[in-house]
Each structure stands twice: as C-alpha cells, then as structure tokens.
Amino acid sequence: MREKNNPATFWEHLDALRWTIIRIVIVLFVIVAVLFGFKDFVFDQVVFLPLRSDFVIYRFFCYLADVFQSPSLCPADFHIELININLSGQFVAHITATFTIAIVLAIPYILYEIWLFVAPALYPAEKSNIGWVFFSASFLFYLGALVSYYLIFPLSIRFLGTYEISDLVPNQISVQSYLSTLYVLVFALGLMFEMPVLALVLSKIGIINKSLLRKGRKYAFVIILILAAVITPTTDPFTMMVVALPLYLLYEVSIMLCRKAKPAES
C-alpha cells in the first residue's frame, strides 16, 4: 500500500535501490564463488556439452530417423576442436562462463528483488495482479534459454563448426567465439520469450490492446522471421523456423492475454 501521508523521499528511494543492488551483487558473488570451484562440471557437463555427437538433440533426431525410417535425419558424428589464442584467454573464459551461469541461475532472485523494490509503491489490487508476472517472467526466460541451449545453439554450432569452403581451410574456432555465441543465443531467446509478459504489462497500462496486435499480425510475422534469421547464425530455413514458430506462438499468446480496446467515448 502506498504511504500517502508519509511518502518516501528521493534519498530513501535511492537508499532502497542501493541495498537492492548490494543484495543482488552478494548473491551473484556467492553463486560465482561456488561455481568457480566446479570448473570441470561447468565446462564438461554444461558449456561444452553441445560439442558432443551424443548430445540429447542429436540423439532425438536419430530416434526420429528410426521411427520414420529416414537415416538422413540422424546427424553424423562430428568433431569440433576449440583453440585459445590469448595468454589469459582460458582464465577469462572461466570467469565469464561462471558469471554468466550465475546470472542465469539468479534470475528468479533478481526479479524478486525488483518486486520488493517496486511493491511498496503499489496498491493491494496491483500487487495481486502483477505479483505472478514476476514468476511468469522467470519461467519464460528459462524456457527460452533451454530452447536455445538444447536446440538452437547445438544446431548452429554443428553447422557453422563443420562447414568448410575447402579442405585447404580447416576450421579453428576460438573458445571466445564459441562462448560468445552461446551467451548471445541463450540470453537473446530468453529475453524474447518474455513477449507475453511484456504484452500483458503494456496492455494493463493502456499502450496496446487485442485489436492492435491482431491488426499487426502480418507485420509481426515478418519481424519475427527477421529476428529469427538474426538470432540463428545458420543459413538453413529449418533452424530459422524452429526459432520463428515458438516466437509466433508467443505472439498469439500475447494477443490472448491483452485487454480489449476501451470503447471510444462519445
């Protein structure tokens, strides 16, 4: 509930924000400190797992190949060797990977801290309406990140890592290039999966409505295709559609969540 008689001053808001940031930094530091000691697990079982020919998405395609009697669906074994060309490259890679995973794991807590910061400024009805938004935001972010990690990134790294214009030009992929591609894809798709939550919030404050999104379907589809093409480094239409289809479904979900336009006052 808002404190109308004794509203917080600017400096009190600033102090509350400062402590919110401090608590988030402390939690991130603790997670980073714990993960830093599990280097083998972080890299062998998480970061570099999509480099294996027996990764779950490849096994799934081989299963489909058996079901539909189409051996071409099963990806052939492949090998991608990463190299390091900087003196401190592997140490920096260890730090950045640990910190990135820490941020991903801390997303629910970060959103919870944001909720605690804005909650005092909301009425009880607003709290009940928007409280579940933070939970939905966490769920959708993880859903997008998992789709990227288990589907988009493996297909991308396998295609780009094994593509050759000539036998005279072998691929030598730096670990920094591999990691940056992984981070961008995971965070990009995680954020794009927040579309329904963003649409609901914008609808509640009156910026968008159902009819507006329905009229913009064809434009949204084109924009989604462009975003899918940007997100997926591969050039094949299959991978692009794998990204575009769930994003378009999320757009339709956003339409269902939005409010109807208010009738014009005469």
Strand order of the largest sheet: 1-2
- Low-confidence runs (pLDDT<50, min 5 residues)? none
Q: How far from one another are the termini?
A: 35 Å
Number of β-strand runs: 2
Count of the domains: 2
Task: Explain how this protein is built.
With 266 residues, the chain is mainly alpha-helical. It folds into two domains: 184 residues, no CATH class; 68 residues, no CATH class. It is 70% helix and 2% strand. The chain contains ten helices and two strands. It has a two-stranded parallel ribbon. Helix 4 packs antiparallel against helix 5. The longest helix is centred in the middle third of the chain and has 39 residues. It starts with 9 loop residues before the first helix and ends in a 9-residue tail after the last helix.
Task: Provide tags for this entry.
single chain, 266 residues, mainly alpha, 2 domains, two-stranded parallel ribbon, 10 helices, 2 strands
SSE topology sketch:
Elements: H1 10-36, H2 39-47, H3 56-67, E1 82-83, H4 89-118, H5 124-162, E2 173-174, H6 175-192, H7 195-204, H8 210-215, H9 217-231, H10 237-257
Helix pairs in contact: 1-4, 4-5, 4-6, 5-6, 7-10, 9-10
Summarize the structure.
The chain has helices spanning 10-36, 39-47, 56-67, 89-118, 124-162, 175-192, 195-204, 210-215, 217-231, 237-257, and strands at residues 82-83, 173-174. By secondary structure, the chain is mainly alpha-helical.
